[in-house]
Amino acid sequence: MRTLTKLLVAAAVGWAPAAALALDGAAVRRLDDGRLLLTWTATGAVDVYVGDASDAAPEALRRISDDDRDGRHEARPAGSARPYFLLRSEADGRTVRVAERLLPLEGGSNFRDVGGYPAAGGKRVRWGKIYRTGAMPKLTDGDYAYLSRLGIEVVCDLRSTEERQLSPTRAAAMGDARYVAVDYPASEVFRNLAPAGSASQAPDRLRNMYREWPVSLAPQYRAIFEGLLAGDAPLAFHCSAGQDRTGVATALVLTALGVPRETIYADYHLSTTYRRPEFEFADADLEALAPTNIVARYQLETRRRGPEARRPQPLLNPAGQPRLADTFAEIEGRWGSVEAYLDKVLGVDAADVAKLRSLYLE
Fold it and tell me: Which residues of 36-74 are buried (b: 16+ CB within 10 A; e: fewer)?
């Protein structure tokens, strides 16, 4: 009788989207032994399905748990494909899709999916389409094989010329992904980041780059939106740590998709947890490179200060707010809104925003 009732509910309601879902907080976490732990909060029983495509139709998925009421399910990944899960409330047939946010890379730092966030119109950002990450000089052959299976089409590099020379990005090793970068001198970033008390500390160290990047990095941010609007996804973008320049890029993209600001801040702060600084720069003779490369000098100075200097710190400004809030304040003070900035500076108008939402929300 229960099975018949479920079939009748499915026929009447269908596979409804997650709007007004009696199911919330869905997440996937990788355990130490490689198993995946799915957790959620629901008012009743949930069915759990899995597939290896981020946009697979529900009927194409395999059910791995039926009438699940304890809000958790453990699954072991089958094969080498990235698993995407779909949770379906038995009460009303509504669904939510979920996957690992942090990709399980051996030599990666902060490489994560921005899918699953609530967005405009009661929809959610599609999984497996937009990735943010730190630099990738320490990726293993296995990591490149994993990324190749994701089908990444474009990699947008937000780093300076010297950073890219010191730690090149091997986009082609991800399955012939197209690589996009725009030259600018590393002094624009690293002269402001010299460790306190160092010989190279510049007088303008306290300049707030979060207020400068909307203009100085506009060509790079524009390239990200151009790729997304062209449908060249999955698309990944990165800087060195994957938190600051990349954090601003992510905030612009998620704002365009209608993601609430508090959610954008929460995603931004994940970098403090997910960064692995030891994997963000290539092995190089920093002493030899230092005379001509400011990034090498910065790394040397950081290394001399000991392990604590490399530890990720909370991304807060002197007022205790997210440093990303300074970017929003600058944009809203100069252009009135993020939407106006996107239009006037990046050339992303209202029609483009509507197209982005049609492509990257579900």
Answer: bebebebeebbbbbbbbebebeeeebeebbeebeeeebe
